[in-house]
Amino acid sequence: MSKKAAAQAIASVKNFVLATHIRPDGDALGSTFGLAHILMMMGKEVICYLEQPVADVYQFLTPQIPIETDISRVIAFASQCGDDIMGIALDCGDLGRLGENGEELSSIHPFLVIDHHQGNQGFGDLHWIEPHRSSTGEMVYDLADELGIADQLSQQAAQCLYTAIVTDTGSFRYDSTTGHTFAVAGHLIDRGVTPASVCQRLYDNASFGSLHLTQAVLATLQTYLDQQVAVIRVTREMLAQTGTTYEDAEGLINFPRSVKEVRVAVFLKEGEKGTDQISISLRAKGDCNVAKVAAQFSGGGHRNAAGCRMHGKTMDEACALLIPALEQALQENDNK
Predict the structure, then answer these.
(1) How far apart are CA 71 and CA 102, in angstroms?
(2) pLDDT band at residue 236, thresholds of 50, 70 and 90?
(3) What does the alpha-carbon distance between residue 20 and residue 98 come to, in Å, rounded to a whole number?
(4) Per UniProt, which keywords does this protein have (predicted)?
């Protein structure tokens, strides 16, 4: 569906349940909370469902946001609203990424998906998906513009959307950044965002524990294919030893990605205790399509930023499967 159709569908409904993917990043939370502010400005009733608590680094986005972590309360709210309700998933590439309660959330009808991930086949009832966009936050801003309230955004709403954009563009470094992205960011600054303040909260707010975690993760660095591929790892033991969480590891993949010779950086993350899952993040430079590689392992994402999960594999086994796939992707890119 188009942006206009999405705006019309939203305008016709009074009550909303918003959700995003598990282990939410800046775009997931920023776009979700930004849309919550927009809907509340319009006099709508909103609940933001999160399966996990908001990471400390993003706590500055939470004031005034109606967050609910109990799925039974969310479903009860939806039942009370009758037919006058809509569920919306933001920045979520597939139903499984909504978490263990995804099926219950998607039982709210109509269920709208707003996303910019390649490979999103459009779960739910309604789909506004634009893979060329820099971020879901950029799309939510355009939705506000379509609804005629972009010039009325509060400072807090603008801050949420700016955070979404700046985090998902790598501070405007990724190829997905366009002139429109900068125009949106400029308007959000006009609405009260202070870029230096946002960046300080996001990037200059580390603990000594996270610094020690960085040291431990970078010590695992291995390179392949004549240093074109760099792989780092994080384990539960590292987190326990440094008193950190997986959120503290977010962004560490940019260290190997920044090396001149490296074309693809890989981050292997051991799953939570009691699971046999390895989470894999892929970041590329240039035209290498890591979304295509991730899709081979039932994952997805963007051309230069993608991810997948493997079950029942050790990190060494996961790496052994990835390297040939990445080699093929690099060769295909070189043969263009």
Answers:
(1) 10
(2) very high
(3) 6
(4) Hydrolase
